[in-house]
TrEMBL record, chain A:
Protein name as it appears in the record: D-methionine transport system ATP-binding protein
GO BP terms: amino acid transport
GO terms of molecular function: ATP binding; ATP hydrolysis activity
Domain ABC transporter: 2-242
From TrEMBL, chain B:
Keyword terms, alphabetized: Cell membrane, Membrane, Transmembrane, Transmembrane helix, Transport
Highest taxon of source: Bacteria
Main location: membrane
Listed InterPro entries: AA_ABC_Transporter_Permease (IPR051322), MetI-like (IPR000515), MetI-like_sf (IPR035906)
One GO location term (cellular component): plasma membrane
Name assigned to this protein: D-methionine transport system permease protein
Family: Belongs to the binding-protein-dependent transport system permease family. CysTW subfamily.
Amino acid sequence: MITLENITKTFQTKKQTAVTALNGVSLTVEKGEIYGVIGYSGAGKSTLIRCVNLLEPPTSGQVKIDGVDLTGLSKEALRNVRQKIGMIFQGFNLLKTATVYQNIAIPLKLTGVKEADIDARVKKYLKIVSLEDKHNVYPNQLSGGQKQRVAIARALSHEPEILLSDEATSALDPDTTDQILALLHKINQELGITILLITHEMHVIQQICDRVAVMENGDIVEQGKVIDVYTNPKHLTTQRFVDSIFPSQIPASIIKDLEQQGPIIDLTFVGDAADRPSLSVISKKFAIETNILSGNIVQLKEQPFGKLRAHIKGAASETNQAIDYLKNQGVQVSEVKSIDSIY
Amino acid sequence: MTAFIERWGSTIVEATFATFQMVTISLVFSIIIGLPLGVLLVITRTGTGNKRWTYRVLNIVINTIRSIPFIILLFALLPFTRVLVGTSMGVRGVIVPLVIFTAPYLARLMESALLEVDRGVIEAYQAMGIKPIQIVWHVMIREAKPSIILGVTIALIGLIGATAMAGLVGAGGLGDVAYRFGHVRYQPEVMYVTIVILVILIQLIQSLGNTMSAKAKKD
Ligand SMILES: Nc1ncnc2c1ncn2[C@@H]1O[C@H](COP(=O)(O)OP(=O)(O)O)[C@@H](O)[C@H]1O
Ligand SMILES: [Mg+2]
């Protein structure tokens, strides 16, 4: 549905120095999926998503929507394509001087939707975002979450096949973020709209994304299905993002002490394995004691995923058998050394 | 009091009317020229190539005109005015210099008003595939309306000040009455009355401008 091929983008700044925001990025988003791009601030995420509808024309590379290269289109043809690509933003970008109703109706009118259809469309999409009681309210009287709903309704009212989201939840509190994410998920499921979103929060990725790409310094350093990237992050940046959802503040000195008495291991559970009480089983089955140091289970879109850090105390042979047992149960096990501990 | 009204009433009413006439006509033309110029300044501001040159030229022209005091502009433009409207005297003759004086000022005020408009909203409209000209009208000018109204109010008050010099080319007006009768023929009451009228007028205009601007803000 969306194919970016070898996109580069260089900004020429005033002082004649060039900033390369994108370094030859390729990405394919399939029809009907929710694709997330995550990265730290300045990684080039906004530049990338803005290349999709050519708000930022790439310096080189191709942007294909349904096989059509947008970079070769006339201004008019590009406008027509853009009408079928919705976009929402961190800052909502609503008209302050227009009511909620007008904020949706005006763009419809300007894109040539028939006067007779406009009213029905506005009402339909305000209902979908649960704002049917706010028609005549001005944006300044709305909360952040409500403003984003208006922006979503505005995007949907053009009946797009694609929705681009540039940090749409980054200005919202956690509860509101979840509501907006749930709404985006519903839009994807019920209206079949393909969503490409960018974010700096893992929370957003795990909540609704099917696939994820990790960006750093203008490159995609890792991409794949969310579950694969979470369970087996390869790039250091990806590992840091994954670790960020498993808060753990164990001082290195304590880890060092514990190491004297037995290994510290990280257990990664996916799906069913996350539900089973594996740790208590091994401490009964083998002559060892286990002690959980930190851990968390998160619900990914498809299945639960958990990580535990535990200390095992006991004879080496018993410990090794216990670890083998866990591995046979479908749990990934890796030993943590105080030196490579990032905690 | 009655004697004063009998002696000066019609002169002052006439002068007030002349001021109104000059100000209204000049303001309308100044907006017709100044608002599009302001838009042009904003959309050429960050461009390259042609856009860049348009901005530079406009910038220099506007700054040049704005550095000339009205009284000098009035005389400097005499030949141009005569060619353009057939006369350089009377209300007709003073409109041209008033507009040339006010339009660049208004253009600057419009520029700063339009620059306040959130770039993000403009982008959102570009992303929806809406034509640039429609974005100018339905986003930029619409959203800037509160500041545009305040800008027009400021320009209007400046314009009233400039019309005081219209008497120099025989266009009459309140300033002319204050000068000719109040100063030259030494009738201080006439001067004071025109001052009071001007003060009240300016107060009213500013309050009206503030109210309309606040109303346009919608928050
Ligand atoms: N219009 C611009 N002009 C110059 N540099 C820019 C511009 N937009 C983005 N950049 C630079 O490109 C890099 C990537 O920015 P951006 O795509 O906004 O990152 P992100 O959204 O991941 O935080 C940054 O170094 C930023 O300073
Ligand atoms: Mg960004």
